[in-house]
Design goal:
Blueprint: H1 13-20, E1 25-26, E2 28-33, E3 39-44, E4 47-51, E5 56-62, H2 66-74, E6 76-82, H3 87-93, E7 121-135, E8 138-150, E9 157-160, E10 163-166
Antiparallel strand pairs: 1-9, 2-3, 2-6, 4-5, 5-8, 6-7, 7-8, 9-10
């Protein structure tokens, strides 16, 4: 029987990151307002749905980020699921320590959401913090979804092995 594993190794930070990069995932931007009411975003791939009834989702945010502090102080956040053409937004919101203010041109007007909504998002969930738990270097925030926004884009932005990808719809083996 042929082996598909390259090697077995102890768990270290490099190996763990490499293994996690093997999981293809959608790219999301967590949105918040700062103390002056300015919209900000943080790129995140640690996101998933938790429950339909009540509607809950979770995001994991490093405790050493301003986004974390803003979520803690307001008990609110939004999550925009990025479309395939949103690499510029993802890159802007992924820069550690940088100014991650969201330009007005990137925001949807009249969405009714309490958190900033990215106009190019496939969907946006506006959340209040339902629960949170510190785990390792991050806080797991479980958000109760209070408002949904759906964009007109149909192709998701994906992340795999450290780079962006688009969905390939025509699979040869069904």
């Amino acid at each position: 029987m042929a082996s598909t594993t390259e090697s077995v190794q102890a768990v270290d930070a490099h190996g763990f990151r490499r293994a996690m990069a093997s999981f293809a995932t959608g790219v999301n931007v967590i949105t918040v307002y700062d103390e002056a009411g300015q919209p900000h975003g943080m790129t995140a791939t640690a996101f998933c749905s938790v429950s339909v009834d009540p509607p809950l989702l979770l995001v994991c945010v490093s405790r050493d980020t301003r986004t974390h502090d803003r979520i803690v102080s307001t008990d609110r956040f939004g999550v925009g699921m990025l479309s395939g053409g949103s690499t510029k937004i993802s890159d802007h919101c992924a820069r550690p320590g940088a100014d991650k203010r969201l330009p007005a041109a990137w925001l949807a007007e009249g969405s009714g959401a309490r958190m900033p909504v990215l106009a190019s998002a496939l969907a946006h969930a506006d959340c209040s913090v339902h629960e949170h738990q510190d785990v390792g270097t991050h806080t797991v925030f479980i958000g109760r979804v209070e408002h949904l926004y759906f964009g007109s884009e149909t192709e998701p932005l994906l992340f795999f092995q450290g780079s962006y990808h688009r969905l390939q719809r025509d699979m040869a083996d069904h």
